[in-house]
Amino acid sequence: MRRKTLNILKLPIVLVAFLFVFICLQAFAQDYGDAIVGASISDARNLLPMLASDSASSEISGMVFNGLVKYDKDINLVGDLAKSWEVQEGGLVIIFHLRADVRWHDGSPFTAADVEFTYRKMIDPSVRTPYGGDFERVKSLEVLDDHTIKVTYKEPFVPGLASWGMSIIPRHLLEKEDLNNTAFSRYPVGTGPYKFKTWKTQEKIELVSNRDYFEHRPFLDRAITRVIPDESTIFLELQTQGVDSAGLTPLQYSRQTDTDFFKKHYRKFRLPGFNYTYLGYNLSNPKFSDKRVRLALNYAVDKTEIINIVLLGFGTVSTGPFVPQSWAYDQGVLPVAFDPAKARSLLAEAGWKSVNKDGWLEKDGRVFEFTIATNQGNEERQKVAEIIQRRLKGVGIRVKIKVVEWSVFLSEFIDKKNFEAILLGWSVPRDPDIYDIWYSGKTKEGEFNFIGYKNDEVDKLLIEGRRIFDQQERQKIYHRIHEIIYDEQPYMFLFTAESLSILHNRFQGVKPAPAGIGYNFIDWWVARPQQKYRIAK
Amino acid sequence: MINYILKRLLGMIPVLLGVTVLSFAIINLAPGKFSTLDQAMNPKVSPEYQMRLVKAFNLDKPLPVRYWLWLKSSICFDFGRSFSDNRLIMDKIAERLPVTVGINVLSLLFVFLVAIPIGVKAATKAGGGFDTVTTYFSFLLLAAPTFWLALLLMQFFCIQLGWLPISGIHSLDFEYFSPLRKVWDISWHLILPVFVSSLGGFAVISRYMRSSMMEALNQPYIYTARAKGLPQSQVVYKHALRNASLPIVTMIGLSIPGLLGGSVIFESIFALPGLGQLFFQAVMARDMPLIMAEVVLGAVLTMLGNLIADISYAYVDPRIRYK
């Protein structure tokens, strides 16, 4: 009798103990195996990182190669192939201490000679790399020993540090190759968490996990990217679980995936985007050289309305050339309210008045009208242009919209500065240096200050911002730039769109962070019973 | 006959030259420049880099010089390297050729196998029930946009029923399959694309067949044949069909250049690694060497197609003779 009561008393303890062990197993027993199948609209072009200028190629080569530094989940620079680094002599010198435990996928050790080789190729004019600019500011690069590198800059250059996130390529395999024209471009060998396996043009690229990866062996054995050029096909593939991850449009995110099937099999992610969409004015055009006009236009357009209609709410109002989650973004710069009356009075101040019954504003006998040009193939932008058109009509400005094929848009509109206003977007890099877009000297053909912005204080701050390594000091600089630019309205800043994506829910260990979800890809795993693709190697 | 063929082949040379001069001029006169979406608007890409590309691709030389350079190497079948990834044009085309040609040949066969009997049947009982139904259907098929039909069929057969794969031509683990399973896998993936790409052809060819068959059936020799007491099948298939097949031979000849011309929309929807995508992207990026290779290929095939059609006329129709 006594024994029995004891047993009953013990039962919960045993249960709890079991539960504990079970939870521990769950927490620590991450299974290896399975594959992740992604979809890409376009095929990669070149897997040699320094020549990979398209996003499809960079995404693949980013898994096969490493740089010296990388951004972590909170968008801070951390070491990758470099264990650590020291910035010396006020930013003139950076010394990188490289990891000694890294091997190329073919087994050869990674050393400082590979870094030096990569640098030489980056600044070699015969190599057709678009990314050489940042490295031309390097005065010298010295290999101190096998795992230490000293980089000396001509002058302090903060974005230079992040530029060492450039993938390092193997010297022993490429020394005798012409990089513009090498088989390596289609059979890359790197140091990264995944090894290249096959590339079937316009079909798929398959990577397999690098079991000796220096951080740890990735849990997912294979990473396959399928090329599916049509977005509706990708969406149909999701419905048969033929694709594990894909980007979503706002409509797909909010309505089309709002079904039991998707809730059961997929997990959706809504992350802050690194982009902004803007209406840029040609500042050499007399209509827009008057600041009051630009301010008025900003009052006349309702950005929240644009976000709600075009992005179905998946975006935030943008007020400057940074993204809200960045430390460079000044949260104190608030967007102005939608206020057509204020717009009208500012326009009247600038001399634009409605003189006859047709309602259009006129000055010196000419109606206020201008053309917004944007590129073909981006429906979002076309809708935004139409909403702006309607809102500006409300204050008496006649807007025409011109949608032009991309290549023509670049050569005939941007290069020749032959536009009144353009509706475009920038993707925002992790480092806030925006010298190339806003510096007053960057207005030659092919450069990016094509609106012709010029402000002496901004020029000074832009130069200073790339010289000071201290983040707090830099923050002050970029906050001030943000403030001035929003005050001057050379662009009408519209919105930052969120990045929407979907992932099969058998993947565990996915932790959304400011940097997105891909930063800890090697920690993603699938419990053995749920593993879908079993053939490996 | 041999002389005739040789004469025709020689005659193609000036035509081909004319085609290349014209298209080279048109491509270069069109607005736009070589560009790729990603690097064109990347502030990290300096104008010096763009200039370097212009030099590397000889884009700074005058147009006639560039044409001459192109012509010189093209005569030896060297179409140069693509601007966008610096690979040999021939390689790029060769790796995509099998898919496009395979699907087009299959769908062409399918079209003729199905459309000719339908056309014949409809013509023999013109105005009857079968004729009316096929007429309506072929107009419906002609009017329906392929991409829309494709998506509907995918929704039904692949998602609702789960019978067929949605896109691609291989399963993901194709490499690990046995040879037999590989054949099965490819056929499985091809059913829907081949079917959809044939639909337009069905409508056109069956209409052609019907009208030329009706014309043939009203000829005096058919009355003669019937008067001789020949069975219906022999009258239709032996006497009328042979005479009605001239336009069909023309159609086959005209389809030959089409064998290499993949459709962009179609390849996008089914995610097929074909030529249509390749050439479309080449045009969007102003990838000149690739565009020119495509033009030459198209021109050569069109001329060959015409030649083949002309030669086959002589076999099909004894009234036609070449000297």
Describe the structure in your own words.
The complex is a heterodimer of chains A (537) and B (323). In chain A, α13 (379-394) links the parallel β18 and β19. In chain A, α10 packs antiparallel against α12 and α16 runs antiparallel to α17 (471-488). With 537 residues, chain A is α+β, with helices and mostly antiparallel strands. Chain A folds into 3 domains: 66-175, Dipeptide-binding Protein, domain 1; 193-272 and 499-530, Periplasmic binding protein-like II (D-Maltodextrin-Binding Protein, domain 2, 3-Layer(aba) Sandwich); 275-497, Dipeptide-binding Protein, Domain 3 (Dipeptide-binding Protein, domain 3, Roll), CATH 3.10.105. Chain A contains 17 helices and 24 strands. Chain A starts with a helix and ends in an 11-residue tail after the last strand. The model of chain A has no long low-confidence stretch (mean pLDDT 90). With 323 residues, chain B is mostly helical. Chain B folds into 2 domains: 2-75, no CATH class; 94-322, MetI-like (MetI-like fold), CATH 1.10.3720. Chain B has 14 helices and no strands. Chain B has helices at 2-29, 37-40, 47-56, 63-75, 89-124, 129-143, 146-160, 179-217, 220-227, 232-244, 246-260, 264-270, 275-285, 288-316. Chain B starts with a helix and ends in a 7-residue tail after the last helix. At the A-B interface, β10, α6 and α14 of A face α2, α3, α5, α7 and α12 of B.
